[in-house]
# Entry
Amino acid sequence: MSSVTAVPLRPIAKGSLTKLWVGVAALVLVAGGLAYVGEYKLGANATPEQFMAWNAGQDGVVTTESGLQYKILKPGSGPTPTDEDVVTIAYKGSLRDGTEFDKAPSIQLPVAQMVPGFSEALKLMPRGSKFQLWLPPKLGYGEQSPSPQIPPNSVLVFEVDMLQFASIAELRRQMMMGGGGGMGGAGGAPDMGGAGDPRAGQ
# Structure
């Protein structure tokens, strides 16, 4: 008898196969439950660094050299804004637990005057695109929270729709010609935003 067949295979006793599959299913459920619990605990209790490290591994999330993380929810087309532009966006800002602290259906914001992570993200977004952003504290408000709704050293999560953008010089020309300061869909004068407006120094 060859070494391969030297040990006879034992048939599985009646009923054992069912028990085997029940055991496998139980292990899968337990493992899945532990993974869910681990993820929940991570979201609730992790430091910003731990959360950002975990989030970096999620599907579609891109991490830039600065530490900004983003996910493209809808691609746009064409050029992207620069520091010399004013953007018209719709956005919603929340904490990593989902607590919403601000939103605007249409707001004009100068790219260069945003907190670092938000400014960086805007310069990646062509017209018509929608991104989800995760800003670590160093790219957001850090220890200087602009509102009681936002604890110091918070990870900031934004959903941003890039509606339009134009250069500051172009907007000035429009104003001098009596055309107002609005861009397509901007609704006239810039909305100054709420408590979580992502401008630096707010």
